[in-house]
Amino acid sequence: MEHTSRRGQSRRALTAIFAVLLAGTATTAFAVPGVTPSPYATALEPGQSVTITKTVDTPVIPPNPDIVFLADTTTSMGASISNVQANADSIVDQVLADQPTAQFAVADYKDVADYSGAHFNLRQQLTADPAAVAAGINAWTPLSGGGSDAAEDWIGALGEVPSAIDFRNDGTPVVVMFGDSTSHDPSAGFSLATATAALQAAGVRVIAIAVPGADGFLWNGLDTAGQATAVTSSTGGTLASANPSEVSAAILSALQNLPAQVTHQAVCDAGVSVSLTPPSQNVTSGGTVSFDETITLAADAPQGTTVSCQVSFLVNGQLPGPEFVQQVDVDVLDVEPPVVTVSDETVEATGPDGAEVDYDATATDNVDGPLVPTCAPPSGSLFAIGATVVTCTATDAAGNTGSGTGTMTVVDTTPPDVACSEGANPGGTVPRSHNQDGFFLLGATDLVDPDPEIWVRDSGSGTLFGPYADGQQIKYTETPGGQPRSKSMPGDIVHLFGTGDAEVYAVDSFGNTSAPVSCLVPPPPM
How far is Cα of residue 161 from the mean position of the Cα atoms in its chain? Predict the structure, then answer.
């Protein structure tokens, strides 16, 4: 401000601001920054999902802040500057306590009418050294300057900030400006609009603190023309007012009440995904937001394994720390039963009761691998003639039971054995050679059928005689030109008359027919 005094004025006594800050923080309750719950573990079936409430407590100061202290150093600002200088170490220490990665720069402004470049003086480039920051703040010297009117040139100073300060790529740029007067517009080559656009392009937020000027000097109030409101609202910052003895407290309070946008990034294994509703939220730094987090397993998620996601919650696009990373672990339940395979077998009967059948049965589980199935009836059992269904089951470690079936078929395709042996004349006559009397004993045996049928065929006429049982005695007489016929004889003997030789064959109950055997008898003499 203009250095012309209307009356002498002594400086005000300053309050010990550190005690004020301690008293203020004692009444402000902030949750421990981070995400809750973290970690989170659950178990789901493939295709299932679960939704939980995810709470994010933001840090009171946004992460990785790059803070530029920008002061009006005209003569009317003496008391306010003294307050900040007296408490510079406290401000820096408390910011670092909340955000250890914070860095600071120091600059000031006057009126371009004071001297060339007076609108922006960089006292300390961005640094993490608290001592260098304090030295830059102590370099503020409100001894002269201010031109001949109330307005200064802080619009020009703000326009210089994006190019003059070496902001970090991963930093959160913030300008903390305090002063007691409006700015010329245009100012040092910038208008309010162009300075604001430069700040927005660089992602710089502006915190403005309006302080009263000292009596006896020209000052008109920082936001009298609405300039401070415009630039703070356009850059996502804040505007506050403070008495000179409270400027340092106001600075710290403003840094702890910046707008913060909470978003998320999820990195997941194959088979699992995470979505949040809403995808982002805005909150004042230090505040709490909640999301509905839905964890979904894909239908083809690998059963019997654990799949994971890391969900990072970002504040203003930055990760505040490891406490903002949520670990999600999902045990994929094994719901798929083992695959059981049973071979189909066809075997020949070995007796009337069927046959013993050996078959193959295997079981494979998607998680447990090969398993030993249990079968009924077991392999090697005696199976009756016909088709019998075998059921085999296997249970995996997760309790899933699978089953498979096979058909065991026992068949009878073996024909009977048949015989036609010469028999004795029941009258006691000793037959001449070639069985002149024509007595025969019929016989037939079968693996399955205990009573196969025996048939006698006249090879001359094709006439069939029978059926007869095993052990039947017959007399066969060949009568060429005669009529095929049969008659009973004493002793249950059947006398057969045919025009040719007798052929004997047997048929079992499954229709298997033996090859014929001949019962040769010479024809009677002519």
Answer: 45
